[in-house]
Each structure stands twice: as structure tokens, then as C-alpha cells.
């Protein structure tokens, strides 16, 4: 349990992330969870006593708890960010986590559905209330490359008169996105019956049976269910639809900067992972098509 004097600065850091950095509540909760777990057994009286050796002890304890390399790296990153804040506030003279290297991680490429699988998922023939809503949610997520939180936070007023979608992304940054033909049709079908499900003053674009904004967990659960109902061989989650959007756009256009803007990535390096995915696709085409690449039978 953190001592009150230590916890005070942790609360100040979370307020900084909330009010100065404008991070989403889910991101702040993740930082809080990581930092509380990291400092749970920390025995110091003042943050100025946090040394590189103590940070290494925290990471070693995480390894002994069988945390994955990815989770350990996330914990180290959270500690670094907190320590940067403490240096800025004069609580530390230098960042004790700055020079500590995290565990090596295998580079994993985003998973995605191919075009035929996306067609199979979205070819929903059912016309009951929730099916129409779910089709509209999935069409819109795939058409605009939305994050799960962005989809859940959409309001009726997010739909613009010119056929675009106004999205509030990470760091409260807005972006305007075009809505494709199929997504527009699915949205029109949903908006016709939305009053049957939404309470009168509900601003949310997508609502649940409780007549209020549908939550992120419920959205993910519904998408997973539709993958089974549509007889897909792989599972579906909201992130996979976003990855599919990015991959398909990049394969068709090769416009990395354009994909960056559409996804709302602050840094191009975040988007560049899709270039590796695109190369993997081309390599598979090459291996299957080039006469000198084919394996001899």
C-alpha cells in the first residue's frame, strides 16, 4: 500500500493526464492500474528515493509474476512517464527509469479480415432491431477505421449534413471522415428504427436495449457473436475491423500519409506497421504466382 505522501503525487499525475494531456478515461485507468501494481510494495518515504535499482526490482518482480514481455514493457513505460512528471515538478532530479531497457518483444502484425471475409461478415440479411443496429455499427467502423471508443462515443450530431462523420479521437483531436455508400445505407436503416430503442433525449448514435448509449464491452461482444453467426472461421473484434480498414486502403492506394490522417495517428511510425503487413501480402502473392518462387512438386 502506497504511503499517503507518495499517493498524493500519483493523484496529481493522473489529474495531469486528465486535464492537461486530455487522455481518455480508459487510458488514465490503465496508467493508474499499472502504476499501482508497480509501486504496491515500494518501500520509500519520498519519490526522490526512487532509484534505478528500485525500478529494476519492480520489473524483476513483474517477471517473477510471469507477466508477458509486452506487459512488463507497458509497466516500464508507465513508470517512465510518471517519473518525467516528477522531474518536471521538482520531486526528482533525474528520471531513474530513463536508461532501463525493457524486455525484447516479437514484432506482431495487426490481424485483419480479407475483403471476402469482410463481405461475409457484413452481409447480414436479418431485419430485427439489433441486427440492423449491429450492421450499422460494423459498417461504420470498417468504413471509417474507427477506434472502439470513438464508435461508442458517437452522437447523432456527429453525422454531418455533407455526409461526413465528425469524430473525437485521442487527445480530444477532431477529424472529419467520409462515410462510404454501404455504411450510409446501413446508417439510414438504423436511424429509421432508432426511436424504438432510444430514449427521447438520448444523444448517442448507437444505443442498447436499456435505451442509453451502448458500452464498448457490449459492442465487442456483439461483433464476436456476429462472426459466429456469419460462419467466419476466425474471431472478430473491433480492433480487427479498424486494422482491416487500414490494410485494405493501403493495399489499394499505397498512401501512407492518407491512412495516417484517416486513422487519427499522431505519428507516422504508428501507421507504418501496415506497410509491413502490405509487404507480407505481396510476398504471399509472389510466392504463389512467380514461376521461380513456386515449390517443385
Features:
mainly alpha; 56% helix; elongated; 297 residues
Protein described:
The chain has 297 residues and is mostly helical. It is built from 13 helices and 2 strands. It has a two-stranded antiparallel ribbon with strand order 1-2. A hairpin with a 5-residue loop joins strand 1 (164-168) and strand 2. Helix 3 runs antiparallel to helix 4 and helix 10 (238-253) crosses helix 13 (273-289).
H-E string: HHHHHHHEEHHHHHH
Rounded to the nearest angstrom, the distance between the terminal CA atoms is 65 Å
- Number of helices in the DSSP assignment: 13
Mind telling me the C-alpha Rg? 23 Å
* Uncertain ranges: none
How large is the share of residues in beta strands?
under 5%
Reconstruct the topology from this structure.
Elements: H1 4-20, H2 25-38, H3 52-64, H4 69-88, H5 115-122, H6 129-144, H7 148-152, E1 164-168, E2 174-178, H8 181-193, H9 216-229, H10 238-253, H11 256-263, H12 268-271, H13 273-289
Helix pairs in contact: 1-2, 2-4, 3-4, 6-8, 6-10, 10-13
Short description, anyone?
With 297 residues, this protein is mainly alpha-helical. Helix content is 56%, strand content 3%. It has helices spanning 4-20, 25-38, 52-64, 69-88, 115-122, 129-144, 148-152, 181-193, 216-229, 238-253, 256-263, 268-271, 273-289, and strands spanning 164-168, 174-178.
Amino acid at each position: 500500500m502506497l504511503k499517503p505522501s507518495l499517493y498524493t503525487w500519483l493523484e496529481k499525475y493522473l489529474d495531469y493526464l486528465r486535464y492537461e494531456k486530455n487522455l481518455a478515461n480508459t487510458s488514465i485507468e490503465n496508467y493508474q492500474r499499472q502504476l499501482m501494481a508497480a509501486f504496491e510494495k515500494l518501500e520509500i518515504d519520498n519519490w526522490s528515493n526512487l532509484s534505478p535499482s528500485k525500478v529494476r526490482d519492480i520489473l524483476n518482480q513483474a517477471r517473477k509474476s510471469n507477466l508477458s514481455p509486452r506487459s512488463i514493457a507497458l509497466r516500464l513505460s508507465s513508470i517512465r512517464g510518471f517519473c518525467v512528471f516528477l522531474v518536471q515538478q521538482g520531486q526528482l532530479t533525474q528520471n531513474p527509469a530513463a536508461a532501463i531497457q525493457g524486455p525484447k518483444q516479437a514484432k506482431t502484425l495487426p490481424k485483419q479480415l480479407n475483403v471476402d471475409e469482410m463481405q461475409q461478415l457484413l452481409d447480414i440479411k436479418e431485419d430485427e432491431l439489433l441486427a440492423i443496429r449491429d450492421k450499422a455499427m460494423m459498417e461504420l467502423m470498417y468504413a471509417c477505421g474507427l477506434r472502439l471508443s470513438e464508435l461508442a462515443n458517437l452522437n447523432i450530431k456527429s453525422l454531418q449534413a455533407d455526409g461526413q462523420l465528425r469524430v473525437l479521437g485521442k487527445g480530444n483531436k477532431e477529424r472529419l471522415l467520409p462515410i462510404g455508400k454501404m455504411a450510409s445505407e446501413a446508417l439510414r436503416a438504423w436511424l429509421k428504427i432508432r426511436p424504438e430503442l432510444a430514449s427521447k433525449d438520448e444523444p448517442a448514435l448507437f444505443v442498447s436495449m436499456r435505451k442509453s448509449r451502448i458500452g464498448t464491452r457490449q459492442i465487442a461482444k456483439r461483433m464476436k457473436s456476429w462472426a459466429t453467426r456469419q460462419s467466419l472461421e476466425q474471431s472478430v473484434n473491433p480492433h480487427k475491423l479498424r486494422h482491416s480498414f487500414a490494410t485494405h486502403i493501403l493495399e489499394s492506394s499505397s498512401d501512407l500519409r492518407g491512412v495516417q490522417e484517416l486513422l487519427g495517428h499522431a505519428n507516422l511510425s504508428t501507421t507504418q506497421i501496415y506497410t509491413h503487413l502490405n509487404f507480407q501480402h505481396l510476398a504471399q502473392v509472389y510466392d504463389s504466382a512467380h514461376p521461380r518462387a513456386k515449390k517443385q512438386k
